[in-house]
Amino acid sequence: MVIYYGCRHCGKELGVLNHTEIDLSLRFLDLIEEQDISEMIVFEKDGDFRLEVICEHCQQALETHPDYHELDHFLQ
Ligand SMILES: [Zn+2]
Fold it and tell me: What pTM does this model have?
């Protein structure tokens, strides 16, 4: 089982966590409110799952242009 990290806005792959790192990441997930987790995690068919986060580039864009928050795919 692995966790894929990707940006939910531009689709950029940010990294992959393998099972040895999952304990760490679950601890990280504990820090996020439950409601947010269900919105961030997408289950893939092979038992892996994908964590949709926001990359540094999109984060900066959102901070610069907060209105873009309402658009799912403002960067293509
Ligand atoms: Zn992005």
Answer: 0.58
